[in-house]
Design a protein that fits this description.
Chains A, B: This is Ferritin-like domain-containing protein. The structure is a homodimer of 223-residue chains. Chain A has 223 residues and is an all-alpha fold. Chain A is built from 10 helices and no strands. Helices cover 78% and strands 0% of the residues of chain A. The radius of gyration of chain A is 18 Å and the shape is globular.
Chain lengths: 223, 223
């Protein structure tokens, strides 16, 4: 059993706590962004994304408790990096908010899904379920594409914004990696579990970057 | 069929739209109040209430569409009175926010449930399901009682606050009643449907006021 390794258990607690706080935080930011919505229909679409993110928190909290952790204590180390990410990427308008919801969320999901592939089946299933697409991608793509068609200069600004989101996410991810030894060690593998060597880690980041570029392209933006 | 009466149909559309916008609006305010939470655990409790409110909106929208209405157009007449209610009752601190969530929500639910009793079974079931308690009452009662025990002067201020919430709710409800003829006529009954005479209407408001007083008492507050 992977959980007999205390370092593995610690790393899984870290990971689930980071995802849970990420979703609480996403809820707050999306609820805030909903204020920028030009119509009630747009507001409801963003609020739906916020509620969908929040809907996963309860199961993550239960699992953290099953693993013997206090869910809120476990989340504490991730508040500063995640809050910092949001502080540094406060959307200046409705479209920056939409792109952040779509691209930022997509990046985080890709990252967690990549890590989940190296974990026990129960943890992997829980993570994948927690990252389920809220089904609002089509809405964001539609709104952003229409806005760029109406004002092509917007595309340049929003492309820069997408790059900034990626840069900030990497900065904060590095901060977490430097602080949380067990979480970092997780990727290196352990008894009974295969890990990632540096080349594999490189390929993983390449895949995440590539998917980011795909999402930007769907929005009609250069990455 | 009650829906063959166009005035009945119009009134039901009004009612469902008012409830839907009320829940969208409650979501926004609760998400805003979550910022005042003293701990992450408290924040998550309020965010859960916000998500629970929002969770009912989708079914109400579907039903409005089935009745041939554009859901967002149907909600439009209720934005001003509901937004005004919230503007006039912006909580000054965490405890005012908690009481508003509990007492304000309770009042609105009692009112809609009373009206639902006079409607066709499908509409009644939908309304009752939309008002399902989000199960966080115990959390609010616990937090408010503990705070008053620690600072008895808080009780006086929060009792005044509860009265203000009731007064503002009545003011805005009257505004809606004056504007929406079909909705008001609904309570008077129609072909095949019993209505309320003035005495029955008086008893209905007495019941709502009484339940408000009960909730205030649970919180340890005079009403």
């Amino acid at each position: 059993m992977a959980f007999q390794d205390p370092q593995y258990r610690e790393a899984v607690i870290d990971l689930l706590a980071a995802i849970a706080y990420g979703e609480i935080s996403a809820f707050e930011r999306l609820a805030e962004d909903a204020k920028l919505a030009p119509t009630l229909e747009d507001k409801v679409a963003i609020a739906s994304m916020a509620s969908a993110e929040f809907g996963h928190v309860a199961r993550l909290r239960e699992r953290l408790a099953e693993l013997g952790a206090d869910p809120f204590e476990a989340m504490a180390p991730f508040r500063a990096p995640i809050d910092k990410f949001h502080e540094h990427t406060a959307p200046a308008d409705w479209f920056e908010g939409l792109i952040k919801a779509y691209v930022g969320d997509g990046m985080a999901n890709d990252f967690y899904r990549e890590i989940a592939a190296y974990l026990d089946a129960d943890t992997r299933d829980l993570i994948v379920a927690s990252l389920e697409d809220s089904g609002h991608s089509a809405f964001v793509v539609d709104r952003v594409r229409a806005a760029i068609a109406a004002d092509p200069r917007l595309g340049g600004r929003l492309a820069l914004w997408g790059r900034r989101l990626m840069g900030e996410a990497l900065t904060q991810a590095q901060r977490v990696a430097a602080d949380r030894d067990a979480l970092t060690a997780l990727l290196a593998g352990g008894i009974d579990r295969p890990g990632l060597d540096l080349a594999a880690l490189g390929r993983m980041f390449a895949r995440i970057t590539e998917r980011h570029a795909e999402r930007m392209a769907e929005l009609g933006l250069d990455s």
